[in-house]
Protein backbone atom coordinates (compact mmCIF):
# COMPACT_ATOMS: atom_id res chain seq x y z
CA UNK A 1 0.00 0.00 0.00
CA UNK A 2 1.08 3.56 -0.67
CA UNK A 3 1.71 5.56 2.49
CA UNK A 4 -0.04 8.93 2.55
CA UNK A 5 0.15 11.85 4.99
CA UNK A 6 -2.29 14.73 4.62
CA UNK A 7 -1.45 18.24 5.81
CA UNK A 8 -4.78 20.04 5.99
CA UNK A 9 -6.96 16.94 6.36
CA UNK A 10 -10.12 18.74 7.51
CA UNK A 11 -10.18 21.30 4.68
CA UNK A 12 -11.70 20.94 1.23
CA UNK A 13 -8.66 19.26 -0.36
CA UNK A 14 -8.06 17.08 2.67
CA UNK A 15 -11.60 15.75 2.91
CA UNK A 16 -11.68 15.13 -0.84
CA UNK A 17 -8.38 13.27 -0.56
CA UNK A 18 -9.85 10.99 2.09
CA UNK A 19 -12.85 10.43 -0.16
CA UNK A 20 -10.48 9.27 -2.92
CA UNK A 21 -8.79 6.93 -0.45
CA UNK A 22 -12.18 5.48 0.54
CA UNK A 23 -12.81 4.74 -3.11
CA UNK A 24 -9.59 2.69 -3.24
CA UNK A 25 -9.72 0.26 -0.29
CA UNK A 26 -6.48 -1.57 0.35
CA UNK A 27 -4.45 0.75 -1.90
CA UNK A 28 -3.47 3.51 0.55
CA UNK A 29 -2.35 3.63 4.19
CA UNK A 30 -3.00 6.93 5.94
CA UNK A 31 0.04 7.51 8.16
CA UNK A 32 -0.60 11.08 9.31
CA UNK A 33 -3.36 13.68 9.46
CA UNK A 34 -2.75 17.34 10.29
CA UNK A 35 -5.59 19.80 10.82
CA UNK A 36 -5.91 23.37 11.99
CA UNK A 37 -8.56 23.86 14.67
CA UNK A 38 -11.25 21.38 13.62
CA UNK A 39 -10.76 18.99 16.51
CA UNK A 40 -14.07 17.20 16.09
CA UNK A 41 -13.59 16.31 12.44
CA UNK A 42 -9.98 15.28 12.98
CA UNK A 43 -11.17 12.97 15.75
CA UNK A 44 -13.63 11.36 13.33
CA UNK A 45 -10.84 10.94 10.77
CA UNK A 46 -8.56 9.32 13.35
CA UNK A 47 -11.34 6.90 14.26
CA UNK A 48 -11.81 5.92 10.62
CA UNK A 49 -8.24 5.82 9.29
CA UNK A 50 -6.12 5.07 12.40
CA UNK A 51 -3.05 7.15 11.45
CA UNK A 52 0.13 6.79 13.47
CA UNK A 53 0.42 10.58 13.76
CA UNK A 54 -2.06 13.44 13.99
CA UNK A 55 -1.64 17.14 14.63
CA UNK A 56 -3.65 20.25 15.50
CA UNK A 57 -2.73 23.91 15.76
CA UNK A 58 -3.31 24.27 19.49
CA UNK A 59 -1.86 22.28 22.34
CA UNK A 60 -5.18 22.30 24.20
CA UNK A 61 -7.05 20.68 21.31
CA UNK A 62 -4.27 18.13 20.84
CA UNK A 63 -4.40 17.13 24.49
CA UNK A 64 -8.15 16.47 24.21
CA UNK A 65 -7.62 14.09 21.28
CA UNK A 66 -4.57 12.56 22.94
CA UNK A 67 -6.75 11.42 25.86
CA UNK A 68 -9.22 9.80 23.46
CA UNK A 69 -6.90 8.35 20.79
CA UNK A 70 -3.43 8.35 22.28
CA UNK A 71 -3.29 4.57 22.59
CA UNK A 72 -3.10 4.19 18.80
CA UNK A 73 -2.29 7.66 17.42
CA UNK A 74 0.40 10.07 18.52
CA UNK A 75 -1.36 13.44 18.69
CA UNK A 76 0.92 16.47 18.37
CA UNK A 77 0.42 20.22 17.95
CA UNK A 78 1.88 23.34 16.36
CA UNK A 79 4.73 23.56 13.88
CA UNK A 80 6.51 20.51 15.29
CA UNK A 81 3.33 18.47 14.96
CA UNK A 82 2.92 19.51 11.34
CA UNK A 83 6.54 18.57 10.62
CA UNK A 84 6.32 15.14 12.23
CA UNK A 85 3.04 14.42 10.49
CA UNK A 86 4.66 15.26 7.14
CA UNK A 87 7.53 12.89 7.87
CA UNK A 88 5.16 10.09 8.87
CA UNK A 89 4.73 9.12 5.21
CA UNK A 90 8.30 7.78 5.23
CA UNK A 91 9.08 8.62 1.60
CA UNK A 92 5.52 7.91 0.54
CA UNK A 93 3.19 10.72 -0.57
CA UNK A 94 2.53 13.91 1.38
CA UNK A 95 -0.58 15.84 0.38
CA UNK A 96 0.12 19.51 1.15
CA UNK A 97 -3.16 21.37 1.53
CA UNK A 98 -2.45 23.85 4.32
CA UNK A 99 -3.56 27.36 3.30
CA UNK A 100 -0.89 30.04 3.28
CA UNK A 101 2.84 29.81 3.74
CA UNK A 102 2.67 27.69 6.89
CA UNK A 103 3.19 24.56 4.80
CA UNK A 104 6.62 25.66 3.51
CA UNK A 105 8.95 24.12 6.10
CA UNK A 106 7.16 20.76 6.50
CA UNK A 107 7.00 20.49 2.72
CA UNK A 108 10.73 21.05 2.43
CA UNK A 109 11.41 18.47 5.16
CA UNK A 110 9.23 15.93 3.37
CA UNK A 111 11.08 16.65 0.12
CA UNK A 112 14.42 16.19 1.88
CA UNK A 113 13.13 12.82 3.11
CA UNK A 114 12.42 11.80 -0.49
CA UNK A 115 8.63 11.86 -0.32
CA UNK A 116 6.44 12.60 -3.32
CA UNK A 117 4.61 15.89 -2.79
CA UNK A 118 0.99 16.18 -3.94
CA UNK A 119 0.92 19.97 -3.80
CA UNK A 120 -2.26 21.99 -3.34
CA UNK A 121 -0.74 24.88 -1.32
CA UNK A 122 0.44 27.08 -4.17
CA UNK A 123 1.93 29.59 -1.71
CA UNK A 124 4.83 27.18 -1.12
CA UNK A 125 6.11 27.70 -4.67
CA UNK A 126 5.03 31.34 -4.89
CA UNK A 127 7.11 32.36 -1.88
CA UNK A 128 10.05 29.96 -2.24
CA UNK A 129 9.82 28.36 -5.67
CA UNK A 130 13.53 28.33 -6.46
CA UNK A 131 14.44 26.83 -3.07
CA UNK A 132 11.72 24.16 -3.20
CA UNK A 133 12.36 23.03 -6.77
CA UNK A 134 16.14 22.93 -6.23
CA UNK A 135 15.64 20.79 -3.12
CA UNK A 136 13.33 18.47 -5.04
CA UNK A 137 15.94 17.99 -7.78
CA UNK A 138 18.65 17.38 -5.20
CA UNK A 139 16.61 14.66 -3.48
CA UNK A 140 15.02 13.22 -6.62
CA UNK A 141 11.61 14.01 -5.12
CA UNK A 142 8.58 14.39 -7.38
CA UNK A 143 6.17 17.31 -7.01
CA UNK A 144 2.76 16.50 -8.51
CA UNK A 145 0.36 19.46 -8.58
CA UNK A 146 -3.14 19.00 -7.20
CA UNK A 147 -4.63 22.30 -8.40
CA UNK A 148 -6.92 21.39 -11.29
CA UNK A 149 -5.12 23.78 -13.65
CA UNK A 150 -1.61 22.61 -12.85
CA UNK A 151 -2.68 18.98 -12.85
CA UNK A 152 -4.08 19.63 -16.33
CA UNK A 153 -0.79 21.12 -17.53
CA UNK A 154 1.14 18.24 -15.94
CA UNK A 155 -1.05 15.77 -17.83
CA UNK A 156 -0.80 17.64 -21.14
CA UNK A 157 2.99 17.76 -20.90
CA UNK A 158 3.42 14.01 -20.42
CA UNK A 159 5.32 12.66 -23.40
CA UNK A 160 6.00 16.12 -24.82
CA UNK A 161 9.46 17.57 -25.38
CA UNK A 162 9.58 20.68 -23.16
CA UNK A 163 11.63 22.49 -25.82
CA UNK A 164 8.68 22.15 -28.20
CA UNK A 165 6.11 23.75 -25.87
CA UNK A 166 5.47 27.35 -26.88
CA UNK A 167 3.19 28.42 -24.04
CA UNK A 168 0.95 27.36 -21.18
CA UNK A 169 -2.63 28.62 -20.93
CA UNK A 170 -4.36 28.51 -17.56
CA UNK A 171 -8.12 28.92 -17.43
CA UNK A 172 -10.00 30.92 -14.81
CA UNK A 173 -13.70 30.84 -14.07
CA UNK A 174 -13.67 34.59 -13.44
CA UNK A 175 -15.08 34.12 -9.95
CA UNK A 176 -18.36 35.47 -8.58
CA UNK A 177 -17.81 39.02 -9.86
CA UNK A 178 -17.10 38.35 -13.51
CA UNK A 179 -20.20 40.30 -14.59
CA UNK A 180 -20.20 42.80 -11.72
CA UNK A 181 -19.58 46.41 -12.83
CA UNK A 182 -16.23 47.71 -11.48
CA UNK A 183 -17.91 50.59 -9.64
CA UNK A 184 -19.92 48.11 -7.55
CA UNK A 185 -17.01 45.96 -6.41
CA UNK A 186 -16.12 47.90 -3.29
CA UNK A 187 -19.60 47.34 -1.86
CA UNK A 188 -19.58 43.55 -2.21
CA UNK A 189 -19.69 41.52 1.00
CA UNK A 190 -17.40 38.74 2.23
CA UNK A 191 -20.26 36.26 1.79
CA UNK A 192 -20.60 37.25 -1.87
CA UNK A 193 -16.83 37.01 -2.41
CA UNK A 194 -16.74 33.50 -0.94
CA UNK A 195 -19.63 32.22 -3.09
CA UNK A 196 -17.65 30.70 -5.94
CA UNK A 197 -19.89 29.80 -8.89
CA UNK A 198 -18.16 26.50 -9.78
CA UNK A 199 -15.90 25.13 -7.07
CA UNK A 200 -16.36 24.35 -3.38
CA UNK A 201 -13.15 25.53 -1.74
CA UNK A 202 -11.76 26.97 1.46
CA UNK A 203 -12.16 30.61 2.43
CA UNK A 204 -8.75 31.83 1.30
CA UNK A 205 -8.82 30.16 -2.11
CA UNK A 206 -12.40 31.30 -2.67
CA UNK A 207 -11.54 34.89 -1.84
CA UNK A 208 -8.41 34.79 -3.99
CA UNK A 209 -10.52 33.48 -6.86
CA UNK A 210 -12.86 36.45 -6.54
CA UNK A 211 -9.95 38.91 -6.89
CA UNK A 212 -8.15 36.79 -9.53
CA UNK A 213 -5.14 36.71 -7.21
CA UNK A 214 -5.57 32.94 -7.14
CA UNK A 215 -4.87 32.85 -10.86
CA UNK A 216 -1.90 35.16 -10.41
CA UNK A 217 -0.46 32.83 -7.78
CA UNK A 218 -1.07 29.92 -10.16
CA UNK A 219 0.93 31.69 -12.86
CA UNK A 220 3.88 31.94 -10.48
CA UNK A 221 3.44 28.33 -9.43
CA UNK A 222 3.38 27.18 -13.06
CA UNK A 223 6.55 29.19 -13.72
CA UNK A 224 8.42 27.11 -11.13
CA UNK A 225 6.71 23.77 -11.69
CA UNK A 226 7.18 23.67 -15.44
CA UNK A 227 10.25 25.88 -15.91
CA UNK A 228 8.25 28.16 -18.19
CA UNK A 229 9.06 31.88 -18.56
CA UNK A 230 6.31 34.17 -17.29
CA UNK A 231 5.77 35.76 -20.70
CA UNK A 232 4.81 32.31 -22.02
CA UNK A 233 2.16 31.65 -19.35
CA UNK A 234 -1.22 33.13 -20.17
CA UNK A 235 -4.61 33.30 -18.48
CA UNK A 236 -8.00 33.11 -20.18
CA UNK A 237 -11.44 33.41 -18.62
CA UNK A 238 -13.47 30.24 -19.06
CA UNK A 239 -16.61 30.44 -16.87
CA UNK A 240 -17.72 26.84 -17.47
CA UNK A 241 -14.57 25.39 -15.79
CA UNK A 242 -14.50 22.36 -18.07
CA UNK A 243 -11.21 23.06 -19.86
CA UNK A 244 -8.73 23.30 -16.98
CA UNK A 245 -5.59 24.22 -18.93
CA UNK A 246 -3.96 23.98 -22.34
CA UNK A 247 -0.48 23.87 -23.78
CA UNK A 248 0.48 25.12 -27.23
CA UNK A 249 3.27 23.37 -29.09
CA UNK A 250 5.65 25.17 -31.44
CA UNK A 251 3.73 23.93 -34.48
CA UNK A 252 0.54 25.65 -33.27
CA UNK A 253 -1.29 22.61 -31.86
CA UNK A 254 -3.33 23.19 -28.69
CA UNK A 255 -3.54 20.27 -26.25
CA UNK A 256 -6.20 20.60 -23.58
CA UNK A 257 -7.30 18.68 -20.49
CA UNK A 258 -11.05 18.64 -19.84
CA UNK A 259 -13.00 17.33 -16.90
CA UNK A 260 -15.80 17.95 -14.45
CA UNK A 261 -15.32 20.60 -11.77
CA UNK A 262 -14.50 18.01 -9.12
CA UNK A 263 -11.25 18.26 -7.13
CA UNK A 264 -11.27 14.51 -6.49
CA UNK A 265 -10.18 13.95 -10.10
CA UNK A 266 -6.78 15.74 -9.91
CA UNK A 267 -6.31 14.39 -6.37
CA UNK A 268 -6.86 10.82 -7.60
CA UNK A 269 -4.43 11.43 -10.46
CA UNK A 270 -1.75 12.64 -8.03
CA UNK A 271 -2.23 9.81 -5.53
CA UNK A 272 -2.26 7.05 -8.16
CA UNK A 273 0.52 8.47 -10.36
CA UNK A 274 1.96 7.08 -12.60
CA UNK A 275 -1.09 4.82 -12.90
CA UNK A 276 -4.63 5.87 -13.73
CA UNK A 277 -7.52 4.22 -11.94
CA UNK A 278 -11.20 4.47 -12.74
CA UNK A 279 -12.95 6.55 -10.05
CA UNK A 280 -16.61 6.48 -9.13
CA UNK A 281 -17.06 10.24 -9.26
CA UNK A 282 -19.08 10.56 -12.45
CA UNK A 283 -17.93 11.51 -15.93
CA UNK A 284 -18.06 14.49 -18.24
CA UNK A 285 -20.71 14.09 -20.94
CA UNK A 286 -19.74 16.46 -23.74
CA UNK A 287 -23.13 16.09 -25.39
CA UNK A 288 -24.69 17.71 -22.32
CA UNK A 289 -21.91 20.19 -21.59
CA UNK A 290 -22.52 23.90 -21.68
CA UNK A 291 -21.26 26.07 -24.48
CA UNK A 292 -17.54 26.65 -23.89
CA UNK A 293 -16.50 30.30 -23.96
CA UNK A 294 -13.13 32.00 -23.54
CA UNK A 295 -12.17 35.66 -23.09
CA UNK A 296 -9.29 37.79 -21.88
CA UNK A 297 -9.20 38.77 -18.19
CA UNK A 298 -9.93 42.42 -17.35
CA UNK A 299 -6.71 43.44 -15.62
CA UNK A 300 -8.03 46.90 -14.79
CA UNK A 301 -11.03 45.47 -12.99
CA UNK A 302 -8.94 42.73 -11.33
CA UNK A 303 -5.48 44.28 -10.78
CA UNK A 304 -4.28 41.43 -8.54
CA UNK A 305 -3.47 39.38 -11.63
CA UNK A 306 -1.02 41.98 -12.94
CA UNK A 307 0.48 42.41 -9.46
CA UNK A 308 1.37 38.71 -9.50
CA UNK A 309 3.04 39.01 -12.90
CA UNK A 310 4.96 42.04 -11.62
CA UNK A 311 6.20 40.11 -8.59
CA UNK A 312 7.23 37.18 -10.77
CA UNK A 313 9.16 39.37 -13.20
CA UNK A 314 11.05 41.01 -10.33
CA UNK A 315 11.73 37.68 -8.64
CA UNK A 316 13.80 37.50 -5.48
CA UNK A 317 11.83 38.32 -2.35
CA UNK A 318 8.96 40.18 -4.05
CA UNK A 319 6.75 37.09 -4.65
CA UNK A 320 6.95 36.29 -0.91
CA UNK A 321 5.93 39.88 -0.19
CA UNK A 322 3.02 39.64 -2.62
CA UNK A 323 1.86 36.43 -0.98
CA UNK A 324 2.07 37.75 2.59
CA UNK A 325 0.40 41.06 1.76
CA UNK A 326 -2.39 39.24 -0.02
CA UNK A 327 -3.03 37.03 3.01
CA UNK A 328 -3.25 39.97 5.43
CA UNK A 329 -5.34 42.13 3.09
CA UNK A 330 -7.72 39.23 2.49
CA UNK A 331 -8.13 38.65 6.20
CA UNK A 332 -8.83 42.36 6.70
CA UNK A 333 -11.56 42.27 4.05
CA UNK A 334 -13.18 39.17 5.54
CA UNK A 335 -13.13 40.86 8.94
CA UNK A 336 -14.96 43.89 7.52
CA UNK A 337 -12.02 46.28 7.98
CA UNK A 338 -11.59 47.22 4.30
CA UNK A 339 -13.59 47.10 1.10
CA UNK A 340 -13.06 44.60 -1.68
CA UNK A 341 -11.39 47.08 -4.06
CA UNK A 342 -8.93 48.07 -1.36
CA UNK A 343 -7.31 44.60 -1.34
CA UNK A 344 -5.13 45.19 -4.44
CA UNK A 345 -4.38 48.80 -3.43
CA UNK A 346 -2.89 47.67 -0.14
CA UNK A 347 -0.92 44.85 -1.76
CA UNK A 348 0.52 47.24 -4.35
CA UNK A 349 1.50 49.76 -1.68
CA UNK A 350 3.39 47.09 0.28
CA UNK A 351 5.13 45.93 -2.90
CA UNK A 352 6.11 49.51 -3.74
CA UNK A 353 7.70 49.92 -0.31
CA UNK A 354 9.70 46.70 -0.46
CA UNK A 355 13.34 46.64 -1.57
CA UNK A 356 13.60 43.38 -3.48
CA UNK A 357 16.63 41.23 -2.78
CA UNK A 358 17.78 37.74 -3.82
CA UNK A 359 16.56 34.67 -1.95
CA UNK A 360 19.64 32.83 -0.71
CA UNK A 361 17.85 30.68 1.84
CA UNK A 362 14.58 30.12 3.65
CA UNK A 363 15.47 32.85 6.15
CA UNK A 364 15.10 35.42 3.36
CA UNK A 365 11.59 34.14 2.66
CA UNK A 366 10.54 34.37 6.30
CA UNK A 367 12.06 37.82 6.75
CA UNK A 368 10.30 39.18 3.64
CA UNK A 369 7.04 37.58 4.76
CA UNK A 370 7.33 39.21 8.19
CA UNK A 371 8.23 42.62 6.72
CA UNK A 372 5.25 42.53 4.35
CA UNK A 373 2.79 41.59 7.08
CA UNK A 374 4.03 44.33 9.37
CA UNK A 375 3.96 46.85 6.54
CA UNK A 376 0.37 46.05 5.60
CA UNK A 377 -0.86 46.04 9.20
CA UNK A 378 0.71 49.47 9.58
CA UNK A 379 -1.08 50.72 6.48
CA UNK A 380 -4.44 49.51 7.78
CA UNK A 381 -4.21 52.11 10.52
CA UNK A 382 -3.16 54.94 8.20
CA UNK A 383 -5.79 55.03 5.48
CA UNK A 384 -4.63 58.36 4.06
CA UNK A 385 -1.34 56.72 3.01
CA UNK A 386 -2.81 54.19 0.63
CA UNK A 387 -6.29 55.23 -0.55
Structural description of this entry:
By secondary structure, the protein is an alpha/beta fold. It has two domains: 2-145, NAD(P)-binding Rossmann-like Domain (Rossmann fold, 3-Layer(aba) Sandwich); 150-261 and 281-385, Orthogonal Bundle (Rna Polymerase Sigma Factor, Chain: A). 44% of the residues lie in helices and 15% in strands. The protein is built from 15 helices and eleven strands. A seven-stranded parallel sheet has the order 4-3-2-1-5-6-7, with helices on both faces. A four-stranded mixed sheet has the order 9-8-10-11, covered by helices on one side. Helix 3 (59-69) links the parallel strand 3 and strand 4. The model has no long low-confidence stretch (mean pLDDT 94).
CATH C-level label of the largest domain = Mainly Alpha
The CATH architecture of the largest domain: Orthogonal Bundle
The average pLDDT is 94
Helix count? Answer: 15
Helix and strand succession? Answer: EHEHEHEHEHEHEHEHHHEEEHHHHH
Q: Rough shape?
A: globular
* CATH fold assignment of the largest domain: Rna Polymerase Sigma Factor, Chain: A
**Total strand segments:** 11
Strand order across the biggest sheet?
Answer: 4-3-2-1-5-6-7
- Superfamily at the CATH H level of the largest domain? RNA polymerase sigma factor, region 2, helix turn helix motif
Q: Tell me the strand percentage band.
A: 5-15%
Structural class call reads alpha/beta
Distance between the termini: 56 Å
Task: Characterize the main sheet.
Answer: 7 strands, parallel
Count of domains: 2
Rg for CA atoms? 20 Å
Query: Could you name the ranges where pLDDT drops below 50 across 5 or more consecutive residues?
Result: none
Into which percent range does the helicity of residues fall? 40-55%
